[in-house]
Amino acid sequence: MQKYKFSRCSCETRELIKNGGFEIRSNEPDYPFQYWEQVNPNFAIINNSPNVAIVAYEGLSAARFESSDSAEEIDKSVSLQQKVIVTPGCVYKLSFAENLLFKGNTTAAAIPLLTARVFYVDNFGNDVDLIIVPIFKFSLEHDPNRGYTFHEAVTDVPIPCDVSELIVRFDYFENSTDGSVWLLDGVSLRAASPISACCEKSMKCIL
Amino acid sequence: MAKKVQPSHDSPVKIDNDKHLKIEIDSLKCCHLPDCPCETGELIKNGGFEILSTDDFQAFAHWKAVNPVSNTIVSQAPTDMTPVQYEGIRAAWFRTEVSDLEQHSISLQQNVTVTPGCIYQLSFAENLLAGSPATFPSLVGRVYYTDSAGNQFDLINISIATSGVFENKVDKGYNFHQKTADIPVPCDVSKVTVQFDFSVRDTGGTIWLLDGVSLKAVSSVSPCSRDKCASSGVICQTRNLVRNGDFEDISGGIGSPSLYWRQLPESGALAEVIGYSTAYEGTFSVLFASIETEVATFKSVSLRQIVPVTPGCRLEFSFAENFRNRGEAAGDSPRLIGRVFWVNDGGIEFDLINIPIAKIGGENDEDKGFNFHKRIADLPVSCNVTSVYVQFDFSVTDIRDTQWILDAVQLRPVPWDPACCLDCKGVS
Hints:
heterodimer, A: 207 residues, mainly beta, Jelly Rolls, five-stranded antiparallel β-sheet, 1 helix, globular, disordered C terminus, B: 428 residues, 2 domains, 0% helix, disordered N terminus
């Protein structure tokens, strides 16, 4: 008979992000893709239309951050997020791929910014960041339409022992007249440690 | 002399008459604690090159540029150019300026304190922004230690050259690279050097960007015995299980475009896999290509390697691909699927990892350079499985000239405890 080890202290071994490839669209308000919530749209949206030409990193679809054109230079922003149940005491690794398909402009130069974040909300309602990956695109000549770039980041510390939910969020921002198009795909969050530090603490055999 | 403490059934804490304290612990209630933990955080300082140096002779804090030849420099973006970075707002710019000599080179390094016995992983992103054909620029990322005689031993070596078609490599955006050492740091070594060697033969004008440098431990405990600190735990070994995954050995025989790899079917297909010289890392890669037909026809071919694995280990699969050309009448039909699967006695295939890639974006996803892909299997290798298939399935419906490059195939066990055992008391 096959035997498998079992540990009460284990972190997750599976993928924690649902629909990280944005393959499943949603008709639910504020959810352009299943499990993904659009937050605070301001002259920018997550376009999930199947009619726009999509360049996919993997699979057949991607999330499309799209800011609208405007007569004047104004701030444009939108966020896309997913809440994830995690194991306290574990370390987590975020990875994703992004592709600035089209870079907007202003009289100066628009600087579109995509920031990947993993954070939790503490008892006082504050966002506590565990991972921040800011991606700026300054160059109109060398940045847009260069294909996808893969990113990976790991939490420096384990999840606190009283936290069991993380938020994975992508914040898009730019100040522009002509809008930009930024693609996101292949979002993944996985445990990067096999054993929970909280479990170790509670079970640690010390005086 | 202390009196012997008598065990009690109601409390783990005992105090004898001479006020000696003893705490008894039921081992079944304790998790195993690693005695020699490897680092859990980032070991590279200023890996994003965000912090400038206060030293007039160095550009970036914690980094040291050494051995410059001719007018070769490492700096932040020059004032007359727009910054191009992977993450944050700065990157390291390796640049050549006009000089009498054609040979240009420079190295950028950082010394890192590590834990003997631990296994480390190097990651970085690079972008060959500008250059000229036939100048042979190269960038090599290395992690090495130096012995007492001054010899350098590479633990990790990622070589990026510009063989093949130069235009396929220049100004294609950032490429992410990641490699794990096949062996742990020796038990008598506690310092390694992370170094990037840049070289080119030109008369100036080459620019290669580096950003997002990271060195992290991937093993959780060290097997080295030091200060009575040792771990006897068995973990899955992290070496690359795929042989010739970088396709550098092109001495494959009939039906084999590269050593250890088999093309399926070996002949008669309307597509083929051939050795190729535009590489993601190293000098060679393989190219999936459709064979010309008079009308648009479905064509497919696969590339396979059978890989021995340890039952119970979780596998991490990675590779880089570059959709070089959408062939005539190919439309949105090109597909490349990276798979890791095993086959049972009945011939049924069970996927552990499946990464489907479709090129449906018209000209926006054609010839955009390499994309790095990585996936960890949700399930460990079954306890009765000792080998898996690593396979890439290429297909397209076209008339001619669809081309897709593949390179840097890695299949590495995650360095955790294997999930299988013979006598454990877990679930069966």
